[in-house]
Structure formats: C-alpha cells, structure tokens
Amino acid sequence: MAKRLVKIVAAIPAGHRHLRMALFFDDGEVVLLTEALAAGITRAYVDVVTHPTRRGVVLCVQEIQGKPGYAKTQLIECGDEEEAVKEIENLLKPAD
C-alpha cells in the first residue's frame, strides 16, 4: 500500500529568509523542502497546466551562478515533454 500525505507545514524559520515546507506522511516520514525546490515544483505545475498544449516538463537539479538572492542549487529544465509524459506513464503502470 502506498504511503499517504497527511499534512503540509510551510513557514520561514527564525533566523532564515526563505520558506521551508515539511511534508508529513502516514508512515512517520517527513520530507523537508527548501524554497528553491518548492518554487521549482510550482513552476513545473504552472508551466504545464496553464499552457494550451504542453503535457509535461522535466526539471533537473543544477548549480547556478550569478543570480543574487537565489539559492545556488535550482531546478532547471533539462528534458523534453515526451520524456516527461513517458516517465509518468511508466510510474502509473501496474506492477507485474
């Protein structure tokens, strides 16, 4: 049985300038996301659902330089739409 997400907590911790998001699962696992990661996920969502024909996007973790105020590690587009669609379709296939 797949684990289920039960709660999301988002906050800017004391002494920090950027948002953190914690995803809590029913098996006790907690995944902590940085603001840069949450922003990348948001960009992927918006890029696909607001585009009239686009069906997918692939983002890869990359180090970037020269953009003050941004984290050095960002999610940057690195694959094509067909790759995204195939990868998700493969994950949705029932286990044999």
Sequence-ordered SSE layout with sheet pairings:
Layout: E1 5-11, E2 20-25, E3 30-34, H1 35-49, E4 59-63, E5 73-77, H2 81-92
Antiparallel strand pairs: 1-2, 2-3, 4-5
Short account of what is shown:
Helices cover 28% and strands 29% of the residues. The chain has two helices and five strands; from the N terminus they run βββαββα.
Q: Could you please describe the fold and organization of this structure?
A:
The protein has 96 residues and is of the alpha+beta class. It has one domain. 28% of the residues lie in helices and 29% in strands. The protein is built from two helices and five strands. The chain has helices spanning 35-49, 81-92, and strands at residues 5-11, 20-25, 30-34, 59-63, 73-77. The protein has a three-stranded antiparallel β-sheet with strand order 1-2-3. It has a two-stranded antiparallel ribbon with strand order 4-5. A hairpin with an 8-residue loop joins strand 1 and strand 2 (20-25). It is flat. It starts with a strand and ends with a helix. The mean pLDDT is 93.
